[in-house]
Amino acid sequence: MRKKRILVAMSGGVDSSVAAALLKEQGHELIGATMKTFCYQGTPSTGKTCCGLDGIMDARQVADALAFPHYVFDVEEDFTRDVIDDFVSEYARGRTPNPCVRCNSNTKFRDLMRRGEMLGCDGVASGHYVRMVHAEDGESALHRGVDDRKDQSYFLWGLPPDMLPLLHFPLGALTKAEVRERARELGLVTAEKPESQEICFIPMGDYRDFLSRRLGASHEALEPGPLVTTSGEIVGEHRGYAAYTVGQRKGLGGGFDEPRFVIETRPDTREVVVGSRAELYAPGARIEELNWLTEAPREGEELLVQIRYRAPAVPAVVARNDSLPRLGDGPSLQLAFREPQRSVTPGQSAVLFAGDRVLGGGRISAAVR
Question: In the chain, how long is the greatest CA-to-CA distance?
Fold first, then answer.
């Protein structure tokens, strides 16, 4: 393998630390980069996120131990525009966003690639559990990581396809247990650091409070409104549709003859629609904001689709329908599942696969019923 100069994204967690160590062992010249995504003043440290000031210091200690330079890049303005503002606006629309997908697609890797070019780097690396497969003809493909419990391909469908040949994911062939053990062998300060579990800019997990501060407590998304059944019967009052997501059971009150779940939210009427477990299932989904890492699939083509992180990929058929209203600025795609799927959630990602290869994906705009 040709030795390269690689810019390594370092969050201050064990995964990015071991990714850097493995690349160093392969003889590459490394430059470490930690991204300052938001203002940390007054932000409590919970130990569940790698993006705070503690994470920056841990990343620097690892870089010092492995003997390569480390920089902190301030991307707060871009992160606020691309991730935080989108997070808030999606909830205001009654949708459930995934900020990690948005960060990877719009901020993190694009900024790392730009800065890497300025530093004379040949590529960018991170500690994601995915694999890059490079064919003899020069084509580069993104594949799932071998550890299906840690595979993070769901978060990377939005990468620009021309970036793939320059990316390195050293952990793609390893399990989490193997990564922990490698960190212990190397004596890295991050070896026993807990998993990053919370949204980095909401470390305490109270996203309703965050929305209230951003939108204002009187915003219609946070105001009470009618709780209705799929037939239109009013059965209660909700505390603001932004606090509800498809499939949710908690917070719906009692008195029903069977368990009730959130089926959809309707911002125009401020309604939260509830229904039975059976009504949670939809035979299809409409997808917008598409991004393809390969050629776009054709109408009638069968593939696999993953509609939630941790959910299995399931068979579906591409059924583009031009008679449907277009959502967003670009084309939309309609998928028909081979079997109806539970909790098809607007705002979440739908990632398309051929086997383990990531074809691309988009945001779910609606369940097709």
Answer: 67
